[in-house]
């Protein structure tokens, strides 16, 4: 176990506090290319303007097939992942009779593989967007074929559906993930009461079926495009008085 000195923690906190910013343009470490990308990507999201309170369109969110497809996809991907993380040591001990040291090492391998696949898939999807004609929607659906590649899939779609309300949509999705985190160990322990190979096979078969559901749900109803109800106000529909110029050059206020 590595003990981190308290003064080191204070230094890290001070460093993070000094580099914080409430707008991309105020971030000291950001590059011009990154600012340009963020600005263009959020052209309709009032970036850089005075912060206003947004009313979350919960009815639109609850009635959106694309949102529910992403929620189900994230839930179905996280369920077998939680099974693997929480119960792989028990499975290796009960069925293969591995010792605790070997069980710990083997149990860490899937998590390490998941980390590598997340990093590799993120770079791969960026490369596909830049060097192919594939659209973001197509890439997100293609990556759903592999459980370890769901980060650029349903999780990317989750924050792309409504950028202005991504916090609400993501929180809504992970509410169900948290509920499944409570139900998962209860169901698994009920099935694998005796720790036999047959019982553990049943646990992993159920996880496999759940992991396959997003292949149908997300590819049919899922999307990575901004939904119509989440699009920001266009310049042509902005509220308030607008000015137009008459033929004599004087401005005229239009209600």
Automatic annotation (TrEMBL):
It comes from the Eukaryota. The chain crosses the membrane at residues 58-88, 168-191, 203-221. GO terms for biological process: monoatomic anion transport. The keyword Secreted does not apply. One of its GO terms (molecular function) is transmembrane transporter activity. Keywords: Membrane, Transmembrane, Transmembrane helix. Residues 235-255 have a biased composition (Polar residues). InterPro entries: MFS_Na/Anion_cotransporter, MFS_trans_sf. It is a multi-pass membrane protein. Residues 233-255 are annotated as: Disordered. The keyword Transmembrane helix applies. Its main location: membrane. Gene3D superfamilies: MFS general substrate transporter like domains. This is Major facilitator superfamily (MFS) profile domain-containing protein. It comes from Necator americanus.
């Amino acid at each position: 176990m590595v003990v981190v000195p308290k003064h080191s923690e204070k230094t890290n906190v001070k460093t993070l506090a000094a580099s914080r910013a409430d707008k991309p343009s105020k971030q000291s470490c950001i590059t011009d290319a990154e600012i340009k990308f963020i600005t263009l990507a959020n052209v309709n999201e009032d970036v850089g303007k005075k912060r206003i309170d947004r009313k979350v369109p919960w009815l639109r969110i609850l009635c959106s097939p694309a949102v529910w497809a992403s929620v189900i996809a994230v839930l179905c991907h996280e369920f077998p992942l939680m099974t693997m993380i929480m119960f792989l040591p028990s499975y290796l001990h009960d069925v293969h009779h591995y010792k605790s040291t070997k069980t710990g090492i083997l149990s860490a391998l899937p998590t390490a593989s998941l980390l590598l696949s997340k990093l590799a898939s993120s770079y791969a999807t960026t490369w596909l967007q830049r060097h192919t004609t594939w659209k973001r929607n197509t890439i997100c659906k293609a990556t759903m074929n592999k459980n370890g590649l769901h980060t650029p899939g349903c999780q990317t779609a989750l924050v792309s559906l409504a950028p202005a309300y991504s916090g609400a949509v993501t929180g809504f999705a992970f509410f169900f993930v948290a509920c499944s985190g409570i139900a998962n160990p209860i169901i698994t322990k009920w099935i694998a009461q005796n720790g036999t190979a047959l019982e553990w096979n049943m646990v992993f078969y159920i996880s496999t079926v759940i992991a396959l559901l997003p292949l149908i749900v997300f590819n049919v109803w899922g999307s990575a495009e901004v939904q119509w109800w989440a699009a920001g106000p266009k310049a042509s529909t902005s509220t308030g008085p607008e000015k137009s110029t008459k033929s004599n050059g004087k401005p005229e206020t239009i209600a």
